[in-house]
Every structure is written in C-alpha cells, then in structure tokens.
Write a structure and sequence with these properties.
Mean pLDDT: 89
Keywords: Kinase, NAD, NADP, Transferase
InterPro entries: ATP-NAD_kinase_N, ATP-NAD_kinase_PpnK-typ_C, NAD/diacylglycerol_kinase_sf, NADK
Number of domains: 2
GO molecular function: NAD+ kinase activity
Structural class: alpha+beta
Largest sheet: 7 strands, antiparallel
Number of helices: 7
Pfam families: NAD_kinase, NAD_kinase_C
CATH topology of the largest domain: Tumour Suppressor Smad4
CATH architecture of the largest domain: Sandwich
CATH class of the largest domain: Mainly Beta
Strand order of the largest sheet: 8-9-7-19-16-11-12
Strand content: 25-35%
Protein name: NAD(+) kinase
C-alpha cells in the first residue's frame, strides 16, 4: 500500500516534531495542489475533516474520482458519515468489500473569458484557447464542482443582473444578490439556506436557486441532469458579477464572458456508512435537525379526566 499525503502535511510543525511519527515520514509519497497530478496513482481516498475536506478532495480530481471514505472531524459532517473513534474496524470492513456507494454527481463548468491577452497564460485546472488574431487569446477554464456554482454581485451595491439560458434558450433574467446552480449534494448546502428544497444525491437533477431575488414569484426550480445552462451578464447590468466554485477559485465575470454548466460524467463515489437512504436521512436529522419539534401529547380519555 502506497500512501500519498500533501507535502504541506509533512511540513506541519506538529507532525514534524512528533517523535512517534518521524520514523515513518520517509515512507509517504507527497503531492502539492495545482502542481502534481495524482489522478492515475490513487485508488482510494480517506478524508479526515469536515464537509469542506471532501469538497477539496473532489477538486483534486478533474476527471475520474476514486472511492472516498470520509471521517467526521469537522463542525457539520453532512457529507462525512464515518466516526473516527472506530476507524480501524470500519476501514477493515471497507477494504474487505462490505460497502455501499452513492454516486454524487458533479457539475462540469466552463468559464469563457472574452478579454484579450498579450501573452498566453496557463490557468490552473483549465485550458486556454487561442483565437488566431494577433497575440490575443480567448481563455476557457474548466472546473468540476461537487456542491454549487454561485454567481453574485460581489462588492457592488447594485443588484446583480444576469441572463440565464437553458439549452440555448433565454429562460429568465436574475435580478437580486445572485443565483446558485447546485447538484443534489449541494442542495443541502448554500441552496437550502437560500430557500431551496433538499434533493437526495441519487436523483439526477440540477437545482437553480435565486439569492434574494427582487421578485416575490421567483422560486427555486429543478431541471433535468444533462441540460446545458449558460449564465451571462445582462446587457442592462450596471456592474460586473463574481463567480465561485464550491467556495473556491472566485473570479470576476464581465460583459461578454459566459459560464456554461452541465452535469459532469465524473461523479464522486462516496462510501456509505449504512446505505444511501439511511445515511442521507440520518444527516438531515443530526446536522440540520430536519422536522424536529416537541411532540404533541395524546388526548386524555374521559375516564382519565374524571
């Protein structure tokens, strides 16, 4: 078994100064984010942390993702069903093959920049396309997103004003603080805080949720997985917009830029503690306290009253 850890983990003073850990440090292989491609070297992922750790692990694999076993060491733990206190027995059970998996769909996001550059510059986790006109380039960067794509107004005091296209047809203009395009996994994250419904990760769908829309009738909608969504600044927009992917890679979107979103063909195979249904409802109850209320007492019979 070959174990890969991030280079910054072994450089951490707490670990480097641990007498018990120092003798085995030389046995680890290391990698650095955005510098090393480990997609062809990893067969199994163990996440130690919170939900953000799983999102980060997903971002390291821009194509096929190995099975992920996520231990709960964070503050929420909606996506991390395993308890670290019993890691040895749980890990042995997984390695023996007694496991069920939920395929968490991701979004394939392509950001097309319409600006001109004097010199081509390689973007992280993306590609650059040249337009063949002088030294200018038309940049296209691609991301794999597990939770959501968020387009918002950023530091501007104006409402964001973006056009939303579905399979090439303009379906609406979003005026408000922004819009969230999420996977079923992301429906229980930022989207649910913005008023969206919660969708089980086995449901093939994409959710579109406005953020504080300036319209009483603009409700979140669910569209089929596989459709192509495109978001662009409206021609009437007074300012630019900003976009982020699972809370990372935040960047400005200007007039002429576009964000194209569809369902990725590379989901995240997440290992279940029990099964996909039990784990999901357990997370709803434990993390979000879904439908928790004080129980109503049974009415007393006439005999008990007297």
């Amino acid at each position: 078994m070959i174990v890969y850890v991030e280079r910054k983990v072994l450089e951490d003073p707490t670990i480097a100064g641990d007498d018990a850990f120092r003798p085995i440090m030389s046995k680890f292989c290391t990698f650095s984010e955005d510098l090393d491609d480990i997609s062809n070297y990893v067969d199994f992922i163990i996440c130690l942390g919170g939900d953000g750790t799983l999102l980060y692990a997903s971002s390291l694999f821009q194509e096929s993702v190995p099975p992920v076993m996520a231990f709960h060491l964070g503050s929420l733990g909606f996506l991390t069903p395993f308890n670290f206190d019993t890691y040895q027995s749980q890990l042995n059970q997984i390695i023996e093959g007694n496991v069920s998996i939920v395929l968490r769909s991701r979004l394939r996001v392509r950001v097309q920049k319409d600006g001109r550059e004097k010199k081509a510059k390689v973007e992280e986790n993306g590609v650059i396309l040249t337009n063949g006109e002088g030294d200018g380039v038309r940049k296209a960067v691609q991301y794999q997103v597990l939770n959501e794509v968020v387009v918002d107004r950023g530091p501007s005091s104006y409402l964001s004003n973006v056009d939303l296209f579905l399979d090439g047809h303009l379906i609406t203009t979003v005026q408000g603080d922004g819009v969230i395009v999420s996977t079923p996994t992301g429906s229980t994250a930022y989207a649910v805080a913005a008023g969206a419904s919660m969708i089980h990760p086995n449901v093939p769908a994409i959710m579109i949720t406005p953020i504080c829309p300036h319209s009483l009738s603009f409700r979140p909608i669910v569209v089929p997985a596989g459709v192509e969504l495109k978001i662009m600044l409206s021609s009437e927009a007074r300012n630019t917009a900003w976009v982020s992917f699972d809370g990372r890679k935040r960047q400005e979107i200007c007039h002429g830029d576009s964000i194209t979103i569809t369902t990725s063909c590379f989901p995240v195979p997440s290992i279940c503690f029990r099964d996909p249904v039990s784990d999901w409802f357990e997370s709803l109850a434990q993390c979000l306290h879904w439908n928790v209320r004080k129980k109503q007492h049974q009415l007393a019979s006439e005999e008990e009253e007297f």
